[in-house]
Amino acid sequence: MPRKVTSSAAPIRDSNRDLVLEVLRRNQPISRVDIARKSGLQRSTVSEIVEGLLEERWIREGSIVKTARGRRPTMLTMNDELFILVADVRPTQAILAAVDLNGRFLDRTLVPIISDPKRGVESIAEGMKRLRSNFPEKTCEGIGISLPGRVDKKSQKLALAPNLSWVGFDIRGTLQKRLGLQVELENAANACLLSEVWFGNLKEVRNAVLITISEGVGASVLVNGSLMEGASGLAGELGHIPISETGPKCACGQMGCWEMFASSRAALRFLQSKTGSQDVFSIQQLMNLEASGNPDAQQAVLKQIEAIGRGLRIVTASFDPELILFVGDITLRWSAIEPILSKELTSRMLAGPAPKIAALADGEAARLRGAAVVVLQRHTGFRRQSFSR
User: Fold this and answer.
1) How far is CA 94 from its chain centroid?
2) Same domain assignment for residues 210 and 102
3) Final residue of a structural domain among 31, 46, 78
4) In CATH, what number is assigned to the domain containing residue 56?
5) Which residue segment(s) compose the domain that 149 sits in?
6) How crowded is residue 100: how many other Cβ atoms within 10 Å of its Cβ?
7) Do 212 and 136 reside in the same domain of the chain?
8) Do 98 and 22 share a structural domain?
9) Considering the domain boundaries, does residue 150 fall inside one?
10) Are 354 and 342 in contact (CB under 8 A)?
11) What was the pLDDT predicted at 50?
12) Is residue 341 part of a domain?
């Protein structure tokens, strides 16, 4: 998805490149003429961009289509000889994958993560080296990392990650040195939303909020078709807006943040305080108990949903989205949760009808594909830098 900036010629050209790539990927195989028609760009502009993408090997020429008359067009596709290494980093583990330019997974693996950032990043580097060696016939074009926190745009380091003690560590520089590839970092919620725009069903949606519910609560905001980033890349940390003046204390240091009531850890805490037992220690166990009709588990999930509903008042009043997407643990029981959440949302609207809500069935895949999209966005054209393979 193009992040539209119009203050200079170079960002406009970048945006046009993003648009050509998106049209090509969605409609491949496709001719230059049809790219121009579907994108609304001038044919000369499309031809210039296509030649650059061919030279950089992001796309390839294929068959020549026979026509009744006139010049026979050459069809274009994404280059399936290229792939991107990606990681979805969580507080205790990282899911690694090799993804091709069409968003197809070539391979996946899992590595444990520890609190020490140097050793944790080293584990990711070793895992990626093993993945890369599985495809000697293909070319890796870069690395995308999805993180549970916000990345400072200037320093390219984690600036805020209450659930991951890697703030300030040079993740990007360390991986680039170890693997010899350009590395791009992105917040996990932003990665999910980018994935839905590029590979999902958001063609007609211009205003949306994506909310991740897992160990914490994260968010990403699409406003008038553009991803909202903020001055330093920290926009969207809705989970750290207080919704109660009384505890519990959040990892960010404040009291009563939204994620302390709406996260998976909050639901487990609700159950443990109700039963006085810590036998249930994972959200999957809790959801299984809820599904089986356990009243304490049902009450814990209900409290979590009500807390999510309270925070949605902030979302709708601030951004007026047409769609709210949910990713994460609550989607495990979405058919039961959605009606209750819809009722909570409607009852808390400031004005007007409530936005639609929907769940992403595979948030892990969305985070991984989104990390690949970030590489696609930043490595093409004028944003590309040279790193040895």
Assistant:
1) 15
2) no
3) 78
4) 1.10.10.10
5) 82-193+366-383
6) 18
7) no
8) no
9) yes
10) yes
11) 94
12) yes
- Three-class SS state of 277: coil
* Confidence at residue 63, expressed as pLDDT on a 0 to 100 scale: 67
**Residue 321 neighbours by CB under 8 Å, 6+ apart:** 207, 208, 209, 221, 222, 315, 355
The gap from C-alpha 153 to its chain's centroid, in whole angstroms, comes to 17
**Final residue belonging to a domain, choices 39, 61, 78:** 78
Residue 71, SS3 per DSSP: coil
At a CB cut-off of 8 Å and minimum separation 6, what does 302 contact? 340
pTM listed for this prediction: 0.83
Report whether 250 contacts 160 (CB < 8 A): no
Q: Which helix (H) or strand (E) holds 187?
A: strand 183-187
- Same domain, yes or no, for 213 and 314? yes
Instruction: Encode the chain (389 residues) as per-residue pLDDT tens digits.
Output: 333 333 344 556 777 888 898 899 889 999 999 999 999 999 999 999 999 999 988 899 986 666 556 567 899 999 999 999 999 998 889 999 999 998 999 999 999 988 899 999 999 999 999 999 999 999 999 999 999 989 998 899 999 888 889 999 999 999 999 999 999 999 999 999 988 888 767 878 999 999 999 888 999 999 998 889 888 888 888 999 999 888 789 888 899 999 999 999 999 999 998 888 888 889 989 999 999 999 999 999 999 999 999 999 999 999 999 999 999 888 988 999 999 999 999 999 999 999 999 998 788 899 999 999 999 877 654 333 333 33
**Residue 272 sits in a domain of what CATH number?**
3.30.420.40
The residue type found at 162 is P
Query: How far, in Å, are 99, 124, 223 from residue 116 at the CA level?
Result: 27, 13, 36
User: Cα separation of 365 and 90, whole Å?
Assistant: 14
3-state secondary structure of 233: coil
Structurally, how many domains does the chain consist of? 3
Q: Is residue 140 part of a domain?
A: yes
CB neighbours of residue 389 within 10 Å: 10
Same domain, 92 and 207: no
Mark 34-62 as b/e (b = at least 16 C-beta within 10 Å): bbbebbebeeebbebbbebbeeeebbbee
Same domain for 341 and 208: yes
Q: How far is CA 80 from the centre of its chain?
A: 22
Task: Answer whether residue 129 is part of any domain.
Answer: yes
Q: 86 and 73 in one domain?
A: no
